[in-house]
Write a structure and sequence with these properties.
Blueprint: E1 7-14, E2 18-27, E3 32-37, H1 46-56, E4 60-70, E5 77-81, H2 83-100, H3 108-112, E6 118-122, H4 128-198, H5 205-219, H6 222-241, H7 246-266, H8 270-290
Length: 294
């Protein structure tokens, strides 16, 4: 299965005290480039998370964002009462009351309002080691969705490439069919030129054949057509095989373009020239599509 390099995946899962959300986005890139953003409490898990991402993807710029938040209904802070400090306040207040002849016992509300008696403390985050199973599961789920979307887009790209491949095969077939006719036409043109130069004198057929052979060696495209056929066959095999074929496709596109340019440079035939122009247009469209294949 061919996959594109563009996609998005999101997953969320709640544990006992927290909720974890992972978002993964990918775009085109020549290589695998991973940008991973983790909460400070999970930074120790970055290496494990990167290894997991790299085991699932081959190419593309991958942006992964992990968010950790308290679970709904769970307080991010908790109240701590310093009973020893409250007791000290009460004892000091009572001692002062006795010294002043005031016997009232301090009210509870007064004690709770004393500095330091009531404190709000952040809930301690779970350890990175305890969080890895959850992070791994959510990250895998987000990557599954990302890969599913890349696969769907890849199938559309593969279908389009098959159409382009067939179009290019057609143009190559036109060139192959026209090449012998172009060679015969060149030989006839050579004879006509020699007749024009020699006038009524007999045309030396051996000389014509020699000159035609020299001309043919400079304009023969048999080797280029053979290589084009081989490259097109390999392209079809990779389309069927699937997998991470973006880089091999890049290479084949370059080779196809090179051979078509050589044919165009050698040709002095209008139909072959038109076919090579059409072929180069098709190859350029294939190149654009291949840029988004993993």
């Amino acid at each position: 299965m061919i996959r594109s390099m563009t996609g998005f995946g999101r997953a969320e899962r709640a544990a006992e005290d927290c909720a974890l959300t992972v978002e993964a986005r990918s775009v085109n890139s020549r290589h695998l480039d991973v940008a991973l953003r983790l909460p400070s409490s999970l930074v120790a898990l970055e290496l494990d998370a990167r290894r997991l991402i790299q085991s699932r993807l081959e190419r593309g710029r991958i942006d992964v964002t992990v968010q950790l938040s308290p679970r709904a209904g769970r307080a991010a802070q908790h109240v701590r009462v310093d009973a020893d400090l409250a007791r000290t306040y009460m004892q000091e207040a009572q001692a002062l009351g006795r010294a002043l002849g005031v016997g009232d016992r301090p009210a509870l509300t007064w004690l709770l309002e004393r500095p330091g008696v009531v404190q709000l403390e952040e809930s301690a985050p779970p350890s990175p080691e305890a969080m890895w199973p959850l992070l791994e599961a959510v990250l895998r789920q987000a990557l599954d969705e990302l890969i599913e979307r890349r696969t769907t887009e890849g199938a559309a790209l593969a279908a389009e490439l098959r159409t382009r491949h067939a179009d290019l095969q057609h143009e190559v077939a036109v060139i192959a069919e026209r090449a012998p006719l172009a060679a015969a036409r060149r030989s006839e043109r050579l004879r006509e030129r020699m007749r024009a130069l020699l006038g009524e004198a007999a045309v030396d057929e051996a000389r014509v054949l020699t000159e035609a052979a020299v001309w043919a060696s400079k304009t023969d495209v048999a080797e280029e057509l053979a290589r084009l056929g081989a490259h097109l066959a390999e392209f079809a095999v990779m389309l069927d095989r699937g997998g991470p074929v973006g880089r091999p496709f890049d290479f084949l596109i370059q080779e196809l373009n090179r051979e078509v340019n050589t044919v165009a440079a050698k040709s002095d035939d209008l139909e072959i020239s038109q076919a090579t122009l059409a072929a180069k247009g098709i190859i350029e469209k294939m190149r654009e599509q291949v840029q988004n294949i993993e």
